[in-house]
């Protein structure tokens, strides 16, 4: 017997606001460095990214170690320091933003600027990458993934970095 | 099994220690009734036949991995509050729990 009846899950996802009206949940999810790297290791294989590791630190910053196949220049390796931005609050602030503080040189930034159009065409809808930040328009990304019905439920979403931990704070509310 | 779930089970959910859920989880009567019908359909379904030996030409079929035992996670839960009640048109669960360090 299936533990998660498919029809029930489908019905809940079809109209979560009605299926779970009255729900008001605050969720704190601390994810260790080991778990985050397991998640990153399980990424799709058919991307230019050869290696991707994350190292959260205690100053609300995390470092990404990236090795990737880049156009023109071949394989590149970078250590990028990233600071999470403001929390997502709906409907006023839909962007989950990560500022790139260190790790990209002048040539990297120039290359990203030159290839901006190509980069945008390869990223999923709702994700923007510039030489200064990566930001995710959460409703657009959920829409792209086919979960647009979940958008009204997300009232607050924050990513924080501590030593060896990224913590997600999420407030779900169905009215 | 997804490699991340496999990692969580192998490490006894230690990498999620400190996780916490607090608040109200409400489910509409329609969902409860749908769940009851789904449960009845599953109980009335004929039992799965015993697994036959694979055909000699079908060497790609692997044994499906068993579903993880929910007790592996439930044993790590620290439940502070779990109250059930009903309201007009919905079932409500008030909950406060976390995963132990």
How far apart are the first and last residues' alpha carbons of chain B, in Å?
25 Å
Number of DSSP-assigned strands of chain A: 10
* Percentage beta strand of chain A: 35-45%
Largest beta-sheet characterization of chain B: 3 strands, antiparallel
The biggest sheet of chain A amounts to:
6 strands, antiparallel
Instruction: Round the Cα radius of gyration of chain B to an integer and report it.
Output: 20 Å
Output the strand order for the largest sheet of chain B.
1-3-2
Number of helices of chain A: 6
Overall spatial form of chain A? globular
- Report the uncertain regions of chain A: none
Task: Please name the two chains that share the biggest interface, counting residues whose Cβ lies under 8 Å from a Cβ on the partner chain.
Answer: A-B, 30 and 35 residues
State the separation between the terminal residues of chain A, measured CA to CA.
33 Å
Major sheet: arrangement of strands of chain A: 2-3-4-6-8-7
Structure class of chain B = alpha+beta
Helical coverage of chain B, percent range: 25-40%
Number of strands of chain B: 3
Explain this structure to me?
The complex is a heterodimer of chains A (175) and B (101). Chain A is an alpha+beta fold and 175 residues long. Helix content of chain A is 26%, strand content 43%. Chain A contains 6 helices and 10 strands. Chain A has helices at residues 6-14, 16-19, 33-41, 106-114, 116-122, 138-145; strands spanning 24-32, 49-57, 61-70, 74-84, 88-89, 95-102, 127-129, 133-137, 154-162, 165-173. In chain A, strand 9 and strand 10 form a beta hairpin. The longest helix of chain A is centred in the first third of the chain and has 9 residues, at 6-14. The model of chain A has no long low-confidence stretch (mean pLDDT 89). Chain B is built from 3 helices and 3 strands. Chain B has helices at 3-10, 29-44, 71-74, and strands spanning 20-28, 77-87, 90-99. Chain B has a 3-stranded antiparallel sheet with strand order 1-3-2. The longest helix of chain B has 16 residues, at 29-44. Chain B is flat and about 40 Å long. Chains A and B meet through helix 1, strand 1 and helix 3 of A and helix 1, strand 1, helix 2 and strand 3 of B. Strand 1 (24-32) of chain A pairs antiparallel with strand 1 of chain B, so a sheet runs across the interface.
């Amino acid at each position: 017997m299936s533990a998660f009846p498919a029809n029930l899950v489908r019905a809940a996802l079809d109209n979560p606001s009605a299926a779970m009206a009255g729900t008001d949940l605050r969720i704190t999810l601390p994810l260790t460095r080991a778990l985050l790297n397991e998640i990153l290791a399980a990424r799709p294989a058919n991307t230019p990214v050869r290696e991707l590791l994350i190292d959260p630190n205690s100053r609300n910053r995390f470092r990404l170690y990236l090795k990737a196949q880049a156009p023109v220049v071949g394989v590149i390796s970078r250590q990028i320091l990233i600071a999470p931005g403001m929390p997502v609050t709906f409907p006023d602030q839909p962007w989950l933003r990560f500022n790139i503080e260190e790790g990209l040189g002048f040539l990297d930034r120039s290359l990203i600027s030159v290839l901006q159009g190509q980069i945008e065409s390869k990223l999923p809808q709702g994700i923007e990458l510039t030489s200064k930040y990566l930001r995710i328009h959460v409703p657009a990304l959920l829409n792209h993934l086919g979960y647009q019905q979940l958008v009204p439920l997300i009232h607050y979403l924050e990513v924080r970095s501590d030593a060896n931990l990224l913590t997600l704070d999420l407030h779900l509310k169905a009215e | 099994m997804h490699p991340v779930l496999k990692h969580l089970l192998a490490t006894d959910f230690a990498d999620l220690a400190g996780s916490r859920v607090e608040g109200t989880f409400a489910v509409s009567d329609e969902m409860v009734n749908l769940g009851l019908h789904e449960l009845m359909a599953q109980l009335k379904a004929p039992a799965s036949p015993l697994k036959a030996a694979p055909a000699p030409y079908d060497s790609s079929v692997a044994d499906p991995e068993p579903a993880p035992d929910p007790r592996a996670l439930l044993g790590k839960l620290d439940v502070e509050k779990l109250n059930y009640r009903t309201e007009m048109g919905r079932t409500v669960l008030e909950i406060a729990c976390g995963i132990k360090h």
